[in-house]
Specification:
Layout lengths: L22 E6 L2 H9 L8 E3 L10 E2 L1 H4 L9 H7 L4 E3 L3 H18 L3 E5 L2 E5 L4 H4 L2 H16 L3 E6 L2 H10 L5 E3 L5 H5 L12 H9 L5 H5 L3 H8 L1 H11 L15 E12 L2 H21 L2 E12 L4 E12 L2 H14 L7 E13 L16 H15 L20
Parallel strand pairs: 2-4, 7-8
Antiparallel strand pairs: 1-6, 1-7, 2-3, 5-6, 9-12, 10-11, 10-12
The chain binds a DNA duplex through helix 3, helix 9, helix 12, strand 9 and strand 11.
Length: 412
DNA sequence: TCTGGGGTCCTTCATCGA
DNA sequence: TCTGTCGATGAAGGACCC
């Protein structure tokens, strides 16, 4: 589901010497759309867009037939429909995608435990340790493609290289339904003709900044002194990009990356300026975040709120608590304080969000009551709510203020 | 044209204590 | 005692990723 610009196809696969190429990047092709077509085979070969039409939604995924009209993921649905009015629009079913994603990850784990998922539809694999058992990396990549196709009837693309970042570029280069090996001694030859925007970490803004400096390709970038890049892009980004331009990327495949924050946000169907309605939404989001914290065994110390005005300008406000929490009421009270302190009363908002950062394991954080403080009992109440939800479903229990329609006059 | 939702990481600035 | 410096931490914003 890459949303970066398509880089031009290379004419040659640069041979197939995969010695020194233990890293695989596996990327499902048009994942959500492909999963939907499993149940709708009559739509194969036609333009299909996954997204919610009408509302303020964006395209989540599109078949390659729709992409030919200029449709791509993250594009506003209204624009996508103008570009491709014939497209069949299917609302997303995240549960279905998660199920296929789990199955695909199982296939990866049967190859090697060194699997680093990047998203539901892509992962890095380090197959260095699987060679003796399963053969060369390119052969392992082909085996994965065959297994995914056989089990789910969908295709994926595989990049094979000596580093994560080159493997990722390679998989993008051979999409859809391809496999590309970038040999260790062909990295510079592979990278330098690519546009700078193809690099991981170069988005629109950075690309514009680089183009202003006359840097259009990775090769151009490689010839610029590191100090210049650091001055223009900042210390970290400058150093990082200078290394990438020469194919240097030492990052290892890391199977377990701990969560650093958990949040939830929602765009209103129409802008809202009623503080009561905004506080109700903050409560709903706090409930969601707290439930996910508890489900993951996390507590967090910093609560932040995100407030986006109707003109899309966005502010965030955060507060670090004395003790970490996974209690919705504590998160909600803090979020309301932050909202009040932001001084946006009666300002029209299009989005609000709640996030908890500074996470740690709930089991490693014994809560310390200060002198005179009384345990509120909210934690116990919310754990009981978790049990009810697990047993009777998500609508089994909710705060009284959320029993009313979510937004005044708009029940969504 | 009009921009979702879930994240990570970096930079800058302010504050505080040693 | 005062001042300057340095590092840690927190807060805010922004760019980027899928």
């Amino acid at each position: 589901m890459s949303r970066k610009q398509q880089v031009p196809k290379v004419a040659s696969a640069l041979g197939a010497d995969d010695t020194g190429c233990p890293i695989l990047h596996v990327d499902m092709d048009a994942f959500y759309a492909s999963v939907e077509l499993i149940e709708r085979p009559e739509l194969v070969g036609t333009p299909v867009i996954i997204g919610v039409p009408g509302l303020r939604g964006v395209v989540l995924s599109a078949t390659y037939e729709a992409r030919r009209f200029g449709v791509h993921s993250a594009m506003p649905m209204t624009r996508a429909m103008r570009l491709c009015p014939r497209a069949t629009v299917i609302p997303p079913s995240h549960g279905k995608y998660a199920e296929v994603s789990r199955g695909v990850m199982e296939i990866f784990h049967a190859i090697t435990p060194q699997v680093e998922p990047i998203a539901s539809d892509e992962a890095f694999l380090d197959v260095g340790g699987a060679r003796r058992r399963l053969g060369r990396p390119a052969a392992i990549g082909e085996a994965i493609r065959a297994q995914v196709a056989e089990r789910y009837g969908i295709t994926c693309s595989v990049g094979v290289a000596g580093s994560k970042f080159v493997a990722k570029l390679a998989s993008r280069q051979c999409k859809p339904n391809g496999l590309l090996v970038v040999p260790a001694d062909g990295v510079v030859q592979f990278l330098h003709p690519l546009p700078v925007g193809a690099l991981w970490g170069v988005g629109d803004r950075t690309e514009q900044a680089l183009v202003r400096l006359g840097i259009r390709t990775v090769g151009d970038l490689a010839r610029v002194p590191v100090a210049t890049l650091q001055r223009e892009l900042g210390q970290a980004a400058g150093t990082h990009l200078a290394a990438l331009a020469w194919g240097r990327d030492e990052r290892a495949v890391t199977p377990h990356v701990p969560d650093k924050s958990i949040g939830a946000e929602e765009t209103f169907p129409a802008d809202v300026d009623d503080p009561e309605a905004i506080r109700r939404e903050l409560l709903r989001l706090s409930e969601r975040v707290a439930a996910r914290l508890r489900a993951g065994g996390h507590v967090g110390r910093t609560v932040s709120v995100k407030l986006r005005r109707s003109d899309f300008s966005t502010i965030t406000r955060s507060r670090t608590l004395r003790e970490p929490t996974d209690v919705a009421q504590e998160i909600y009270v803090t979020a309301c304080d932050l909202f009040a302190a932001a001084g946006l009363d009666r300002v029209r908002l299009r989005l609000v969000g709640v996030r908890v950062e500074n996470l740690r394991g709930a089991d490693t954080s014994a809560r310390q009551l200060t002198l005179g403080e009384r345990e509120t009992g909210w934690r116990e109440v919310e754990r009981a709510m978790d049990k009810a939800v697990r047993r009777f479903g998500p609508d089994a229990v909710r705060p009284a203020s959320l029993v009313r329609p979510k937004f005044d006059g708009i029940d969504v």
